[in-house]
Design a protein that fits this description.
Blueprint (H helix, E strand, L loop, with lengths): L6 E6 L3 H13 L2 E6 L2 H11 L3 E5 L7 H9 L9 E5 L4 H10 L3 E4 L4 H51 L3 H16 L3 E7 L5 E8 L3 H4 L3 E3 L3 H9 L3 E3 L2 E5 L2 E5 L2 E7 L9 E8 L9 H38 L2 H6 L3 H20 L9 H10 L12 H4 L7 H8 L1 H10 L9 H12 L20 H15 L11 H10 L7 H9 L1 H10 L9
Parallel strand pairs: 1-2, 1-3, 3-4, 4-5
Antiparallel strand pairs: 6-7, 6-13, 7-8, 9-12, 10-11, 12-13
Length: about 525
């Protein structure tokens, strides 16, 4: 077996006889040699061939060894090459001058060839060790850079999951994160279809969506089915097959399950992520596999949380529809009143969403929650004594103070349903409305005397529509007034009782309120 040469040495010597001797001995010691007889030629060869060691005679023509060494050390391409300086000058100042020029060793002529070879070997080994360390550091820096990038991608993914409010957004983020992480050419997300044993493609990248729509895999079939059943990640160097009539082949393939960890659902595996066509058709790295597993785990948790929130919100909606009528039964306030307030709140919120400074605050989710919360505005009346709640005439000051406590009662009742660990926006809005719908924009309302934007926006909306319905409805202690009178009151109280922005919205669509009022005339109600 031929041994690998120890390294390459550039010999810069104008004495042809000495140059021959050095070449012969270095080659006999296993080194490859290059040679030059002047400084400029030495610089050219060093830049082109990058030798491991340079033997530099000081007294060479054109450009002497001191100047040539300085030039080598000032060039980023050659600055790392160690130089052993050869010279007949042996004074201390000559040695210092050579070392200051950048020489690693300084050997005076005449020298023992065995000593020179020993120094060349030592310098070469030190240079090789330094190169190995530089390469190791470079590799470590590259590895750290990759790991840092992966960690940043995962961190950004976790943050985006925390902000996601829809299932579709979570699925989109899974695909986007894996694309950023791996650069893979094809990614598919197969989710188990509820009520069946089929996996269907809900998201994909690099695959024609017309094909994705047809992908339907039995959980007992294929690689995706195997991963689904086993709950284990599968990584392969190359793979091929067909899905729903579409033939595929991939040089790099990874399939990992999305596993539900929720004790509430106990669904186990809920889907499978397939990733293929890694750049360069090389297998997925172990770190990439770990990152994709982390993405799958985090995504499964996010989907679990989304399902729990959806189930909780559905339960809250059912509960609210039931509880919202408790005050009605005690107060004889009709279902029509609650329905009108709810519909008016929706109409006013939609108009405010279209125009004005609150457009960015009133989202579709805000309106949906507002519609669900509106019937709860007077839930606290369940705690008001009958003799006050159903009194046919005007309340005394003392009785009115008791009546005002229904806002605090409503807050306390609804707050009992709050789980600090799992907040529900719908329930929070219910509390805001029940507690604050009698606050006034000028701060003269109750129970806390909140002013302007301190009052939750949902409560400001309910305050206006509830007042409109109260003015235009027959009550035990006063007759209904006309729509025009209600509009005049609301316009007059803009900025005092009501939010001016909401009043402007109301005035733009006040005819919609009139039409709704006329279509849902209600028997006598109370609304204090």
């Amino acid at each position: 077996m031929t041994e690998k040469p120890a390294g390459t040495v550039l010999i810069v010597e104008d004495d042809a006889e000495l140059r021959f001797i050095l070449i012969a001995n270095l080659r006999a010691s296993g080194f490859t040699t290059l040679d030059a007889d002047d400084g400029y030629e030495a610089l050219r060869i060093a830049q082109e061939r990058l030798p491991d060691v340079i033997l530099m005679d000081v007294g060479i023509p054109e450009l002497d060894g001191i100047a040539a060494t300085r030039a080598l050390k000032n060039d980023p391409v050659t600055e790392h090459i160690p130089v052993i300086m050869l010279t007949a000058r042996s004074r201390t100042e000559d040695v210092i001058q050579g070392l200051e020029a950048g020489a690693t060793e300084y050997l005076a002529k005449p020298f023992d060839i065995a000593e020179l070879l020993a120094r060349v070997r030592t310098v070469y080994r030190l240079a090789a060790t330094r190169r190995d360390l530089d390469e190791l550091n470079s590799n470590l820096e590259a590895e750290i850079s990759v790991k840092t990038r992966h960690l940043q991608i995962l961190y950004d993914f976790m943050q985006s999951l925390n902000r996601a409010t829809k299932r579709e957004a979570i699925l989109d983020q899974i695909i986007a994160c894996i694309r950023d992480l791996t650069g893979a050419g094809r990614i598919s997300l197969l989710m188990r279809e509820r009520g069946t044993d089929d996996l269907v493609c809900e998201r994909a990248f690099g695959i024609d969506w017309t094909i994705c729509n047809r992908i339907r895999i039995k959980v007992a079939e294929g690689i995706a089915g195997q991963v689904f059943r086993s709950g284990k990640t599968l990584s392969a160097r190359s793979i091929g097959g067909s899905t729903s009539g579409h033939t595929y082949a991939a040089e790099s393939f990874l399939s990992t399950p999305l596993v539900s960890t929720s004790m509430a659902t106990q669904e186990g595996v809920i889907g499978v992520i397939n990733v293929t066509d890694r750049p360069g058709d090389s297998p997925f790295l172990a770190e990439e596999i770990d990152c994709i597993r982390s993405i799958a785990d985090a995504a499964a948790i996010a989907l679990d949380n989304f399902d729990r929130r959806r189930q909780l919100e559905q339960s809250v909606k059912v509960l609210l529809r039931t509880v919202g009528h408790l005050a009605e039964y005690r107060d004889e306030e009709t279902t029509a009143h609650l329905a009108r307030v709810t519909e008016m709140a929706r109409i006013l919120a939609l108009e405010t969403q279209r125009h004005g400074p609150y457009a960015g605050l009133i989202t579709d989710d805000f309106i949906e929650n507002l519609v669900q919360s509106a019937p709860m505005h007077d839930i606290g009346k369940v705690g008001i004594p009958d003799e006050i709640l159903t009194k046919p005439g005007k309340l005394t000051d003392e009785e009115f103070e008791i009546m005002k406590t229904h806002t605090e009662i409503g807050r306390r009742v609804l707050s009992q349903a709050i789980d600090p660990e799992h907040p529900v926006a719908l329930l929070d809005m219910c509390i805001d409305i029940a507690y604050c719908h009698h606050e006034r924009f000028d701060g003269a309302g109750y129970p806390r005397g909140l002013h302007g934007p301190q009052i939750p926006l949902a409560a400001r909306i309910i305050a206006l529509v509830d007042a409109y319905d109260a003015i235009t409805s027959d009550r035990r202690y006063s007759a209904a007034r006309t729509h025009a009178e209600a509009v005049a009151v609301i316009r007059q109280d803009s900025g005092s009782h009501f939010d001016p922005v909401l009043v402007e919205s109301f005035l733009r669509i006040e005819t919609d309120f009139d039409q709704l009022r006329a279509s849902q005339l209600d028997p006598i109600v109370t609304n204090r």
